[in-house]
Amino acid sequence: MQCKLMAAVLAAAIPLCASAQSSVTIYGVADAALAKEDTGAKGGSRTVVNSGNQSTSRVGFRGVEDLGNGLSAVFNLEAGVALDTGMGDSSLFGRRSVVGLKGGFGTVMIGREYTPIADVANASDINGQGFYGTNLNSFGANRLTRRISNSVNYKSNSMGGVIVSAGYGLGETLVGPSLDLMGLALEYKANNIYVGAGYHQIERLASGDDKEMIVGAGFTAGAVEVRANYMVANPTGNNNKYEQANAGVSYTFGANKIYGNLQQSKLEGGAKGNGFSLAYSYALSKRTNVYTSYASIRNNNKAAFGIFSAGAQVTPDATKGQSGSDPSAFSVGVRHSF
Known about the structure:
- With 338 residues, the protein is mainly beta.
- 7% of the residues lie in helices and 55% in strands.
- A hairpin with a 4-residue loop joins β15 and β16.
């Protein structure tokens, strides 16, 4: 059913793209890699073909219609694709599905959208939330929230480099806690400097609200780029607080780019994992590159933190006594954007 629906959407979009008056664009990423993954536990090593070790493979449609007087209608539909199997995500346009209006007031979007915290996390991650060792592991295990369904979102235009983002996701429950999410972020992007902060509050339990926050920063000086962030997820209850810190640097020379990142994750009960990652990318063209990446985490005997790339993860299974295992991963891949 998904394949038939995707084919129908593609067929409908092609005539629009062919028209000189059209504002609809088809875009995407095809990314696949050969990887060696090891959870650090006995029998936890395997060799795999992964989709999306640098960027999640995807197909998307975005468009703009000029409504006059500086007002435009905008939309974006984006579907994840697994190149290793050809399968799509369980939700066809689960990556992003929004429609809204854009003008001098900023942009208002309705649908499934990235959260305000997600914007800051992406901008302050040296890996661009790709490669093994990215900060995406902070969004796993119901920690920080990366996307919100049933949401209304606002993003201001740049005001001297300052951008304000806000989102409200409706839980749409009939009884009990609303599951509503309220989020806000403030970012500054100018003069090769980035600073951002974000906050979420979620009414998940009757006993209190879950809270999430992030602060991030970075700067670029010639060929050198530095990015760092600190994230907290504090669910209702005792000994639930999660913290993660990242600090990374990259260096570009010619078609080559080298990335390095240090990461620490902690849980309030005493679990701690210290990790690092290295990656290298070589640009064959503006749209195509080859890459290799490696990451490792050393967990203490209470921790089972994992390694995430854009489209894969390697995580010890704490339910099977694998706490204290030290996961690692290595990949070689190719990425093409269109």
